Amino acid sequence: MNQYIGIEGGGTKFICAHGSGPHDLQDRTVIHTQSPDQTMKEVADYIRATQKKSLIKAIGLAVFGPLDLDPVSPMYGYITTTPKPGWKNFNIVGVLKQAFKLPIGFDTDVNGAALGEYQWGAAQGLNDFIYLTVGTGIGGGLMINGRIVHGAMHPEMGHIIIPRDTSRDSFAGCCHFHSTCLESLASGTAMSSRWCVKSPFDLPSDHEAWDLEAHYLGIGIANHILSFSPQRIIIGGGVMQQTHLLPKIRREVLKCLNGYLKFEKIVNRLDEYIVKPGLGENSGICGAMVLAEQSLVRSVKVREVEFSPEVYA
Fold first, then answer.
1. Cα–Cα distance for residue pair 124/188, rounded to 1 Å
2. What distance in Å separates the CA atoms of residue 35 and residue 40, rounded to the nearest whole number?
3. Taking the alpha carbons of 260, 232, 298, 5 in that order, is the dihedral positive or negative?
């Protein structure tokens, strides 16, 4: 069985592991996201240490964005307009390519998580679904007809514009670009800033913060349902570790839809339609291994073409 290195890069932490999937995750290591130079040095150290004991075939990188995912773009492999200090216009794929002569699969962290859930988790058997993460930021991966959607770049589901509830919320938002996008009002960063706590986990379960959080997420998810008609919505991320939050979100989604959709799962089985990740906290790292495997397959196909006798006929 081929061995891959998976790297899930988030704004707070990078997670590295090697193996072939959720039942073969070895040496799972957490690296605090610091400057690009320091973070990638630790990632490279992990890869070199792993190569000494395992034959690694490819690397998969699922990382926070926005990203340039167009292979013909001169900025391919870059993290682009992120507000994360030091990471704007950083050539993260180029750094790994320079250090390691291995195929590298590259996509957003949420697209990676969607691939992991599609392969082994709560999206198995589905062709159309959304993976949404609610953590330091908010992002979403969208699969339609069995393929991750990229389009011009990649969807930014956390930056859809939603109305602020001015009757109970005077918070100005935390996004550097949009004051009332979903991430600006409902990310973990927004919750910490609005309620003046170090982490949303510091808020008790009966705090008014959670009803407001569910309200904003409910609006965002209802918009995603109406826009893309997914067969399922999977919601992960650190904020969703609050077990009381998901039922609140489901209720807010129904309130927003207001009886318009008569899809049976929405009407009667919403707990099967809006669900937690099947892989738990390993969706992203497993998806990174899917990216690694895909990059290996592509590299093999390229070599077959390069060395095909027909090419030189």
1. 28
2. 8
3. positive
Query: b or e along 111-139 (b: 16 or more beta carbons within 10 Å of the residue's beta carbon)?
Result: bbbbbbbbbbbbbeeeebbbbbbbbbbbb
Residue type, 213: E
Q: What gap in Å lies between CA 57 and CA 2, rounded to an integer?
A: 7
Q: What are the structural domains of the chain? A: 3-108 (3.30.420.40), 122-276 (3.30.420.40)
- Does pTM surpass 0.85? yes
Please provide residue 220's backbone torsions phi and psi, each rounded to the nearest 5 degrees.
Answer: -60, -45
Kind plus residue range of the DSSP H or E element containing 58: strand 56-63
Query: Encoding tokens for residue 171?
Result: 């918070």
Per-residue model confidence as pLDDT tens digits over 68-91: 999 999 999 999 999 889 999 999
Q: Find residue 67's DSSP bridge partners.
A: 79
Which residues 6+ apart lie within 8 Å of 98 measured at CB? none
d(CA 6, CA 172): 37
* Across 212-228, average pLDDT: 97
Q: Count CA atoms closer than 13 A to 278's CA, side-chain side.
A: 19
Got the DSSP string for 27-66? Answer: EEEEEE---HHHHHHHHHHHHHHHHTTS-EEEEEEEE-S-
